[in-house]
């Protein structure tokens, strides 16, 4: 039986940090589905396409690959250009589109099928892997999430203000929870962890306990 760990939650809740460390400790794959929405969101934004038929045309020409933990768009390795607040907004905007979700969900399901893998996103436990062995819903206060994101971006050398990051998080929360298709919500059978109250290590240990029980 594979061990598929679905980690969902809002922007900046600590999903990426936790998912990466967890996958590393368990020696299993890690899939960042948010990165996939960022890649496609930026690409479609650059092309300036808005309606479904134009988006569909663009998607049919795109080759998105996941090789050894890296994404390749039409043969070119994707880097930190997808980590800006603007890329997050583009991701969230196009993530509302059924056609984009269908395109990416299919790729995500293919990658995670029968794998031991940690998959993080917004709809992993609800849509992408509804029968995941472990489902975690990670949350934190809005201010805490903005603070963390801001620090992360500064460390990466991305030039932004705290207000810009906070506003981006508020806007994305709204778009992600209010969209009609696959909105961000806690799966009924997920374990809720509020990372404001715990250190990363404590969050990881809590998840590892569940993994030991179920995998
Ligand atoms: O996780 P990250 O913040 O990088 O995700 C960027 C955006 O991609 C989210 O705000 C959300 O709109 C979208 N997303 C999604 N479903 C996922 C992962 C990300 O809609 N599974």
UniProtKB/TrEMBL annotation:
Binding site for ATP: 9-17
Any one Gene Ontology cellular component term annotated for this protein: cytoplasm
Enzyme class, spelled out: transferase
Organism expressing this protein natively: Thermosipho japonicus
Catalytic activity: CMP + ATP = CDP + ADP; dCMP + ATP = dCDP + ADP
Protein name per UniProt: Cytidylate kinase
NCBIfam families: cmk
Keyword Membrane annotated: no
GO molecular function: ATP binding; dCMP kinase activity
E.C. number: 2.7.4.25
Cytidylate kinase domain residues: 5-211
Location(s), subcellular: Cytoplasm
Protein keywords: ATP-binding, Cytoplasm, Kinase, Nucleotide-binding, Transferase
């Amino acid at each position: 039986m594979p061990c598929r760990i679905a980690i969902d939650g809002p922007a900046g809740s600590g999903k990426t940090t936790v998912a990466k460390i967890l996958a590393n400790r368990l020696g299993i794959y890690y899939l960042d589905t948010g990165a996939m929405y960022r890649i496609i969101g930026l690409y479609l934004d650059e092309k300036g396409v808005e309606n479904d038929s134009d988006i569909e045309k663009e998607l049919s020409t795109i080759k998105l690959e996941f090789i050894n933990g890296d994404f390749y768009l039409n043969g070119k390795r994707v880097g930190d250009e997808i980590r800006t607040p603007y890329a997050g907004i583009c991701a969230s905007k196009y993530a509302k589109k059924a056609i984009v979700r269908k395109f990416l969900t299919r790729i995500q399901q293919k990658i995670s099928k029968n794998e031991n893998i940690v998959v993080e996103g917004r709809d992993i436990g609800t849509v992408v892997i509804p029968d995941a062995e472990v489902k975690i819903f990670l949350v934190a206060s809005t201010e805490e999430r903005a603070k963390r994101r801001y620090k992360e971006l500064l460390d990466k050398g991305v030039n932004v203000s705290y207000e810009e990051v906070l506003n981006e998080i508020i806007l994305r929360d709204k778009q992600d929870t209010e969209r009609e298709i696959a909105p961000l919500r806690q799966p009924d059978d997920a374990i809720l962890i509020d990372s404001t109250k715990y250190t990363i290590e404590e969050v990881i240990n809590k998840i590892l306990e569940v993994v030991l029980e179920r995998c």
